[in-house]
Amino acid sequence: MNGNLLAASTAVLSLLCGLASAETVRVDAQMAPPAPREGLLKMGTGLSPSGQVISVNDRYLTLAGKPVLPVMGEFHYTRFPEQYWEEQLLKMKAAGVTVVATYVIWQHHEERPGSFDWSGNRNLRKFIQLAQKHGLYVYLRPGPWAHAEVRFGGIPDWVVDSVPTRGNDPTYLGYVDAFFGQVAEQARGLLWKDGGPVIGIQIENEYNRTGPLQGRDHISRLKEMLRAHGFDVPLYTVTGWDNAVFPRGEVIPVFGSYVDEPWSASSGLLPPKSSYLFQFGVRNEKGLGAQGRTSTQDDGARDSDITPFFGAEYGGGVPQMYRRRPLISPDDIADMVITKVGSGVNLLGYYMFQGGQNPSGSPSRDESMASGGYNDVPKFGYDFQAPLGQYGQAHPVLNKLKPIHAFLQTFGDRLAPMAVYAPEIKPAAADDLTTLRWAFRGDGRSGFVFVNNHVRQYATPAHPDTRFEVKLSDKSVTLPSKGVTVEEGAAFIWPVHFDLSGINLLWATAQPVTKFDDGKGDLYVFAATGQIEPEFVFETNAVRTVAGAKKTQQGAQIRVLPDTGRIVTVTGTNGKTARLLLLSEAQAQSLTTVTVQGRPHLILSAAHVFGNAEGGATFRQTDPQFKFAIYPYLSDNFSANLKLKREESKGLFQSWSATAPEVKLTAEWQLLRPAGKAPPLKTWGPRNTPIVPEPESFGASAAWTVKVPKDALKGVSDVYLDVDYQGDVARLFSGPQMLDDEYYIGRTWRIGLKRYADKLTQPLTLSVMPLREDSKVYFDASVKPQFAEGQVARIDAIRLTPEYELTLK
């Protein structure tokens, strides 16, 4: 035997041994999904004046006859300053959100009977128009009961004081009807049928009541009232969890999941959440915190045979609540999203996507146990640890979500019609942490492998030597070419029989991100999966040439092994050409598609990148040194607010840098008064749930004065007051006026100062209520307050952190 033959034999033997030792997990996905059924749901007009039609069948949405899988993000306009709405909507659009949902919180508009306020931060019409300006759809949620962690669920005090609510009491319905009429005026001419962006209405919220004048008839009555005011829209929905009740076929139930439960009475670690469990045929999840349930029925499950699987409250974070204060990581949210989409969700709705702040009012607008609510929340702060924070800033989770959203936006037409297939072996329950969690969505011929090996706060074992065998209608596909390790915390989506503009990609161990027209044809962008070798596999007889990457042939298959940042061109024997670009996982998370000079560009940057109202790109970060890479290259006639420097380009992208004038700021702060003795703990109920201290108790708070330079905001986009502290409740004041507050959760409290520019001429006051050492409040295990004499109320550091801006146009 010659040396070459021996080497070849050894290689084959090694490959066979590797395959034999691999753990192959299997799924039977050969049966094609049934054809979608039309006409089962009583929705409104789906035809727009331009001739485009929004329609819904029992499985998915269509737009202009094409399946779509929208990303919907919640943004409460009354909880954010009007002058920044447009910028925040553009940030949402850049993050891949296509539908903006918003509560229309009744009490924010009619604090006194018959006196409605739709001005300033309450200008719903302007908010809708701004969304329309930038090509975003709008989903209205006018309640009348919203929850939203506001006082009385958003129903005005004067209504709660005078009539029974959330039922068909005639007087209550009269008040609701007047409110609905006002909302209709705000949306007049802006509905889909009129050429506007409003495509849907959610009726009530978490409605699970079956007492006198309640139940399904109440939802029917509210829908009739909305339609009588002209709300003829393509979609009507209700929340479907926690024994929701609603009339069959009149509305579509929407679902959700939260990775922790701040409303829970538990003071310890929660059991593993179903947020991370692929579920097959199950839409409803426990632990969403619906209040006052009297129903024993489950209409959400009842209607699963005629309605698509839509979501409205997949938590982009969680609210702060006094009794339970979890810290949420970016992976906690992103891996839940992969799991839920892999479970069949065909409308990915977040609550919240944009954090906010309650408007001022007397009494305050927050939900509290003192006012009969189920939770104590901050009076003002509603950051939610959402992708976009209370002050408009990007939280780290945003970058984790962007590649998933780009995938859904670009390839949702393929994914939405696909069914969900369960593997042969799947976890027995949410607390089964050893069985590999995965699912397949497919159409009998092609599809996507979804994998999640992350469970918040619990260790999951790595799965070495893993391969996936997918049985399709014509043959089985096994990937990767050899066993790989699915590491703890890994979550990904891999394509099977993926069409690349006429060339069939058998499978890949990289996640599709987007498809981009660079003027030379379709460019398919993929993201590598951790440390797993990216493989792109084609049938040998379908490929003529491969350029730009290494390739190997194994029998009837060609393995293409690309490097990151270079275009790979595959020419088929059918004369068609496929072009693909591989990015690293980190690059994909820093990728944003933004239109500059009328043309879409791919931009890689550590900065927060989004489109601006002038048709260019805006970069924001707290480092004055900007770096970005862009493709296609910038034209010669672009302009920027900072001097750009051309850097050496690596791979496909053109690299640039810019330096903003550095601003160094210092806050002067000093103790105003030391902390007093915190009052004894107050608890409620059989589980001794801690409740927020009474107002008089806050006299024990320590306080500091904070002086900010008067010109601090000059030359920057914002300045953040970053406060490192330990205590129970922190509050920010300008004189006697409370500006903001939060419950201590173990992270830096970041406060954007540009919205308080008129308050900076005088010192601000920061107060910290002492946290008692015997407190029963739940904190994340990483949070370790340092107590002295049985309590803690301290500030360790106060920094002023400038946010710089680079704009291109």
UniProtKB/TrEMBL annotation:
Reactions this protein catalyses: Hydrolysis of terminal non-reducing beta-D-galactose residues in beta-D-galactosides
The Glycoside hydrolase 35 catalytic domain, residue ranges: 61-406
A Pfam family the protein falls into: Glyco_hydro_35
Protein's recorded name: Beta-galactosidase
GO biological process: carbohydrate metabolic process
First and last residue of the signal peptide: 1-22
InterPro entries: Betagal_dom2_sf, GH, Gly_Hdrlase_35_cat, Glyco_hydro_35_CS, Glycoside_Hdrlase_35
Enzyme Commission number: 3.2.1.23
Keyword Cell inner membrane recorded: no
Keyword Hydrolase: yes
Keywords per UniProt: Glycosidase, Hydrolase, Signal
Assigned protein family: Belongs to the glycosyl hydrolase 35 family.
Top EC category: hydrolase
GO molecular function, one term: beta-galactosidase activity
Organism name: Asticcacaulis excentricus
